[in-house]
Amino acid sequence: MFKLKEFYQYKRELKKKNNILQTKLLAVPPYTVNNKSSVLSKSCQAILYVKSSKNNTIVSLTNLKGKVQFVQSCGSMGFQGKKKRSTKFAVESTLSSIVEKAKEQGHKKVFVHLNGFARARFAVLSCLNKNDLKIEGIRDLTPNPHNGCRPKKVRRI
């Protein structure tokens, strides 16, 4: 074991090393430090998150650091009932409102994160192409079980 003096000396050396590492990290541009945006290229300007469920679709636009700029959902656009909110038309109108706001901010290229299994996923890509917003890349964030939960035992009569 360490003696007390050796222990404190060792602790001071570790602090010095950590300080040196932190100063090196601060000198590197922010898009390579953050894991989320390290996938993105320098030309990409925003991230578009699309969460589609059976009942609703939520679209949010963030900057590269992850700070939310705009959020819109089919329910907030005035579509009521799950049949109306999950349609292609509802998704396209929601996306077009977000795209207009993005263009006002000056965004031209977007990285898309898709989440969920609903029909809206396919409408998203076609709508973005119609509105002249270039897709830098697509990433699927849908959770998939690797074999999942154990099923109930079979009922015997």
TrEMBL record:
GO cellular component: chloroplast; ribonucleoprotein complex; ribosome
Keywords recorded for this protein, A-Z: Mitochondrion, Ribonucleoprotein, Ribosomal protein
Statement: the UniProt record of this protein carries the keyword Nucleotide-binding: no
Localisation: Plastid, Chloroplast
Pfam families from the UniProt entry: Ribosomal_S11 (PF00411)
Residue ranges that the Swiss-Prot or TrEMBL entry lists as coiled coil: none
GO biological process, one term: translation
GO molecular function: structural constituent of ribosome
Family designation: Belongs to the universal ribosomal protein uS11 family.
HAMAP family xref list: Ribosomal_uS11
Name used for this protein in its record: 30S ribosomal protein S11
Gene responsible for this protein: rps11
